[in-house]
Amino acid sequence: MKIRILGTAAGGGSPQWNCGCPECEEARATGRSRTQDGVAVSGDGRAWYLVNASPDLRAQLLATAELRPPAGTRDTPVRGILFTSAELDHTLGLLGLREAAELDVYATAWVHEALTTAFPLHTVLSGYTRVRRHDVRDGEPVTLAGGLRVTATVLSAKRPRYANEQAPGEAVCAYRFDAGGRSFVYAPGLAAWTPAFEKAISDADLAAVDGTFFTEDEMGPARPASGMGHLAVREQLPLIHARPRTRFLFTHLNNTNPLLRPDAPETAEVVAAGAAVAFDGQSLEL
Ligand code: MLT
Ligand code: MN
Ligand code: ZN
Predict the structure, then answer these.
(1) What is the mean pLDDT of the chain?
(2) CATH number of 2-285
């Protein structure tokens, strides 16, 4: 299995356009910017699937050699797009794929519903290309091209702010990819290590998990990480330390996160627990 990490920042990216906080200033000064989270996964190195389509997707595709069209063709190695949520930072980039002949989009029925009603992305795109909606069901494996199998695990009912009118449901999920006996779990929005999530990562070779906030009160006491559907990194470290079988990477970093600095003591804490911070353009093979 091949994995390309396309982006590793939370909504807004790092630096964020309207933020002059010390972390964003540092990102500007050093050029250590991060695009909004997404990954590409392939079982055979030819058929690729995107997980999440961030507003930065066009730049991410251009920067990734594996995702370019074969020379002389009007084609793409991208066989489909999977959404972990209907959040804007995970879905807006789909609009940028409207030149495709067709788009195979995988998500829970709840997420597809949000993308047809409160944020009618599918409806808009249908004027440009053929959108094929695939509903993924909690715990049910789906066969993809290139020897890849994917299984969704529903994580929470945390709704995007635009979809607060929609009845709560399967709003956030993780995906576990299996190919050739190797496995990779992608969970950028992890409210808690639920028993279902523990099952999804059991025996996984690699997991890229929610690194939005390092601590619960990073945004101040009025905006706790848990209230935004994110389990703080520091609370995940003991859980990770107890699972040496799996390699853990943190992704979806908010622009307040001290892990943005490679030399921060918090980054050393992550490394001491046996984990690491993912970076844009990272290439992994299992
Ligand atoms: C989140 O990850 O909590 C959401 O994407 C928030 C947002 O970007 O508005
Ligand atoms: Mn987000
Ligand atoms: Zn900032």
Answers:
(1) 97
(2) 3.60.15.10
